[in-house]
Amino acid sequence: MKSMLTCLGLMVLGIATALFIGFHDRFTSEVTYYDDEQEGLKDQIVFKFSHVVAENTPKGRAANKFADLVYKKSGGSIKIEVFPNGSLYSDNEEMNALQNGDVQFIAPSTSKLGTLSPEWGVLDLPYAFTSYDAVQKGLNGKIGARLFASLERQHFKGLAYWTNGFKQLTSNKGPILSPDDLKGQALRIMPSSVIEDQYRLLGAYPRQDSFNSTFQLLESRLVDGEENTISNIYSKKFYNVQDYLTISNHGYLGYAVMTDERFWNSQTEKTRSILTEAMKETTEWNESSAEQMNKEQLEEIKKNSAISIHVLTKAEKLKWMKRLDPIYGQYEPVIGRGLIQELLSLRRQP
Ligand code: LMR
């Protein structure tokens, strides 16, 4: 009788243990790294992709597309969890998180990379690019290659450049037609000394702060205005707390999709090639859709808000360019003559 009871007890314990293990495997989000040698294990690799913008933006949609493509191409064995809106890490935190292995992919705006290497400032120069075509030529050419090489010093690996578009100005203080209209205005900007110095040159008060604090800064009138692409102004509803929008196209805003080099090198050939292929397709899609997305969202802003919109005329734009031109000379020793000359030669191309 005693041995029967012992036997029954052991069986119950065995079933409970098996149930617990099954339950644990199913509901924990532990990352299991894929290993080609271990076929038969029901492993799914889970990687994290963190970014700070809304999903309905060029970057948000590209991150989701990348995740979908990776899932399909790997037959479901690689899953990318995308965390938008700074829900996992803010723009101030994401680079550290990448280095610590807490996240595997990020796509900061290139303006935020000047903290790693001052060369990135080249993309923040006023009117650096005057068309989406010029952006592609620059980033897929010498400028892009040089900037990605600079990431290696910190063991980052640049996987692709994603584009958003051109920055516009918003304010509560009054219409912004000429550079002098910004005098005395407090503006939220990204952490970039090139951008900061542009606004100082115009007598404004730039304030570097994170993207996800921008709405609050505008709403509480801690700043008068900000600069951003239409997709960010639209998706974060800045237009609801700003009275004036100027289509100035005065600067470029795009992204460097990055991973940690050590993480990348630790992956199998197979995983790397799935990720590379998916990234290539996503980037092509992003390049062909970002401009249109910004255009459509400008129409939505017009439909849904009373914000007053001014589009700079050609003559007005020339005035802005001329006024901001000294920044090029000021930053030549910082960014490097070679990169600035490369940019200017692109600008001269028809
Ligand atoms: C910003 O901080 O304004 C932008 O960099 C946000 C983004 O990632 O587009």
Automatic annotation (TrEMBL):
<dbReference type="InterPro" id="IPR004682">
    <property type="entry name" value="TRAP_DctP"/>
</dbReference>
<keyword id="KW-0732">Signal</keyword>
<dbReference type="Pfam" id="PF03480">
    <property type="entry name" value="DctP"/>
</dbReference>
<dbReference type="InterPro" id="IPR038404">
    <property type="entry name" value="TRAP_DctP_sf"/>
</dbReference>
<comment type="similarity">
    <text>Belongs to the bacterial solute-binding protein 7 family.</text>
</comment>
<protein>
    <submittedName>
        <fullName>C4-dicarboxylate ABC transporter</fullName>
    </submittedName>
</protein>
<dbReference type="GO" id="GO:0055085">
    <property type="term" value="P:transmembrane transport"/>
</dbReference>
<dbReference type="GO" id="GO:0030288">
    <property type="term" value="C:outer membrane-bounded periplasmic space"/>
</dbReference>
<dbReference type="InterPro" id="IPR018389">
    <property type="entry name" value="DctP_fam"/>
</dbReference>
<keyword id="KW-0813">Transport</keyword>
